[in-house]
Fold this sequence. Notes:
By secondary structure, this protein is of the alpha/beta class. It has a domain at 22-185 and 201-274: Spore Coat Polysaccharide Biosynthesis Protein SpsA, Chain A. It is 51% helix and 13% strand. It is built from 14 helices and twelve strands. The protein has helices spanning 2-22, 33-43, 65-73, 96-107, 130-139, 158-168, 185-201, 204-208, 226-231, 244-254, 276-290, 295-325, 330-357, 367-387; strands at 52-58, 83-89, 112-116, 144-148, 152-154, 173-177, 179-180, 221-225, 259-263, 268-270, 392-393, 396-397. The strands form three sheets. Strands 3-2-1-4-8-6-9 form a seven-stranded mixed β-sheet, sandwiched between helices. Strands 5-10-7 form a three-stranded mixed β-sheet. A two-stranded antiparallel sheet has the order 11-12. Helix 7 crosses helix 14 (367-387). The termini are far apart.
Amino acid sequence: MTIVALLGTLLYAAKLHRVAVNAPKLTIAVNSSDRALSETNQQRETVALPRVSVIIPAYNEADNIEACILSVLQEPVLPPEHLEVWVLDDQSSDATLAIAQALQQSLNDPRLRVLTGKPRPDQQTWMGKNWACVQAATYATGEFLLFLDADVRLKPGAIGAAIEIVEEKHVGLLTLCPEVVCGCLAEWLVQPWMMSLLMAGFDFNEVNDPNAEAAFAAGMFMCFRRTAYEQVGGHQAVADQAVEDVELARRLKQQGLKLYYAVGANLASVRMYRSLAAVWEGWTKNWHLGSRRNLSTSLFSATIMLWVCVLPWLGLVTLLYQGATVGLTLLNVLAIAIALTAIAMQYRIRCSIERVAAIPPRYWWLTGIGGLLVAAIALVSIIKTETGWGWTWRGRSLQLPDKSK
């Protein structure tokens, strides 16, 4: 058992190390906001600056919406006339709309516009935030559309850096892996290993290869060239998709447009969930759908977590128990050494994850518990998605469209 555990851990560690080292990484070139503004002003007469529309769909985001908006408005590179921020409240049942409207009134910033979302159309299937995005996009006037989730916090200069990459590399869609912030213990246990599965499943360079089938986008940060967004049909075209970001990425590559996926911890951060309940609800909502409801893929992800995260600890505990009750033999000592080596490799894996998602290897020694949680999430996600049982997001019931109709 210990040899099998070590082999799996070594292979997984090597894969993630390779992904982390080779992943393209975005940075903000300027050293300060003052320098950014100075350079922008100097170039304004000779360079045609683009107009950017930032779209923030918000559903029950009272804890996030104000900080998200303020982080966007601190953008130092684009002058005010080249940036507009559209916040669309998607029929929230909390104070999201009131907070956004109060902030708009207090700031009196012409860049910020707050919209009240309309009810979802009858006789149509609109999953997730698609309906909110479609409504806001009809108001946007920018050459570039940056869709942000409300739990994202941009760093000064992030929008300018993103647009620079889109133009420099002739990209249709730029998406990134931001810094993933963890607060409660559940986040520290689950988030790193969820990121590891995404790293293993969606190699950055394979996603960016126009000749490869791999396609991925993180809906929390998607910067479209407007012409590309319209060419793939926008969120209207994926109205019935709960994991709309990945589907948009697939359609974009199928249209021959360029997709660019990069490490973006220097541009943005995100705290996706704030409690065990939120971690559980969020990932069980998305995980199986993200695998395109492929049962073998979802089961494989659960197996990998048990193999890499749980098996080394299970082997060590079993061997130590045997040594304490029966006595140690040379074979037991060698097996314990192998199990400890596999556990040490878990720390190396966490270091690779840190290079991409900027999650420090804190609580790495609780990897066994984290692996169990992630495996359970994958299994429950299959059940929820396929049966609809308990499949919700912040109290809003989810239901897949009936493909037979």
